[in-house]
Amino acid sequence: MRQLSALDAQFLNIESGGTVAHIAGLAILDASGTPNGALTLEDLLDLVRRRLPRIEQFRWRLAEVPLGLDHPYWTEDPDFDLEFHVREIALPAPGDDEQLGEQLARLHQRPLDRRRPLWEMYLVQGLAGGRTAMYAKIHHALIDGVTAAQVVAALLDLEPSPPQADADDDWHPEPPPGQWGMLAGAAARAAVHPLRTAGALLRAVPHLDALPVVGRLPGIGLVAGTGRTAARTGEMPPPPNLSVPRTPFNGPVTAHRRVAFGSLPLEEIKAVRHKLGISVNDVIMALCASALRRWLIDHEALPARPLVAAVPVSTRETEDGSHGNQISAMFTSVPTHLADPRERVAAVRSTMDVAKQRLGATPDQWLAQLTATVPPAFGSLAARALFRLAPAAVPPINLVISNVPGPQFPLYLCGAQVLGYYPISVISDVSGGLNITVFSYNGSVDVGIVACRDMVPDVWSIVDHLREALDELTALSAEP
Fold first, then answer.
1. pTM (2 decimals)?
2. pLDDT of residue 238
3. pLDDT tens digits for 91-100?
4. Rounded (to 5) percent helix, strand, coil in the chain
5. 349: in domain
């Protein structure tokens, strides 16, 4: 039995209306090299069954504390049914990428069943070119980016035919938690909550001026500066001007999604990085700035000031086997307002440098500590209020952009080679109706985009704009 942290529970609390809080991955597979030249549902079920001892959270389900007085617990599901979670579907001909994106959008917009372990996996047949796909989603309350990569690693192999050395599954579910025990724990934590809240707020004060919206309130700069002096945190770069403009993808999101994906050559991105003297992550951010600028111009909605993005960052120091979320975020401007690509690159480099410096001077767990200041009994109510009020006021950010480095060698699922792996994340009223997540794998930069269908109906055009943006930066880097 394991209790969710305040940050883990927050991903449950934000689910309402158009927001679902699971993250997902799409693997495109070449099954031609498997013994029977295909990948079947029985193959996938057998693999997951054998790997279950490595992925213990696949058997966890929620146990709610009576009256919602404390954060829920993860407990093992005594009625765990693997065949409920692993399923098979097929696309009609011709099975192209846009058809796959439409099917993924339907799967991604559905909330997970909280009466069962919070994950699902789909084998998708009928793709053009004889390909197969595997789409898997798991609730963000269970994992963050690092633990998601560990789950994927537990399912994938380094060679097509690895030795069958999986551990025997001698699993016996533990007894579920008792209600009186959970209530006693809730009472004990409620007694010390005011002291913990006071400490968390004191640690958060020196960094308030770095938060979107909050940092622009009158007097916050003075309060944060005084807090840094008292805490002796030393000098920090001045906070960036994170004035968030309105865009078509900010406001209340609906329950309907659009999903698109595509790949860019990592070699070309590295060549641009070398020629322009910036990091790979800076190139990714510059590509996103250019693509978003083109999309906003197409929709006659280009703001006169830069967008503001949240960039998730892992705070997990080691792969220690711990679960849940250990994440923070950088907030940075995205210079969509600049017409000249060279100026956009320079602006990205400057703003990302400042964001990294400020992140380095900020406690790793500030986001978790700030979330923990809300009493558990009011967590759901506070989340609903925030998500209802945020779209009506100034949006805290415009979108989330995430870049996750991955392995640069081929991986295999049930003997089928993984041709590409595309992450698909979360959108919400607060974070914006558009999310761009990037994963580098085996010589490619694989991009997964999820959007609110009503806000960004033409999400595939952003994939095209990313390719155009890379051509633009390649030409720029070739200039003397």
1. 0.90
2. 62
3. 999 999 999 9
4. 40, 20, 35
5. yes
What is d(CA 358, CA 234) in angstroms, rounded to the nearest whole number? Answer: 11
Tell me if residue 140 is catalytic.
yes
Lookup result for tokens 């993250």: 23
Residue 106 identity = R
Total domains in the chain come to 1
Q: What does R_g of the chain's alpha carbons equal in angstroms?
A: 23
Residue 48 lies in a domain: yes
- Residue 75 lies in domain: 1-166+177-201+248-480
Q: Which helix (H) or strand (E) holds 176?
A: none
Q: How far is CA 288 from CA 243, 262, 339, 388, 462, in A?
A: 19, 13, 14, 28, 9
Q: Are 66 and 56 in contact (CB under 8 A)?
A: no
Taking 50 as the pLDDT cut, the residues of the chain under it are none
Are the beta carbons of 434 and 427 closer than 8 angstroms? yes
pLDDT for 313: 87
Catalytic member of 22, 71, 85, 140: 140
Q: What pLDDT was estimated at residue 199?
A: 64
Residue 214 lies in a domain: no
pLDDT 10s digits, 322-346? 677 888 888 899 999 999 999 999 9
Q: Give the Cα-Cα-Cα angle 46, 52, 57 (nearest 5 degrees).
A: 140
Q: How many angstroms from the chain centroid is the CA of residue 454?
A: 21
162: domain CATH number?
A: 3.30.559.10
Q: What is the pLDDT of residue 459?
A: 98
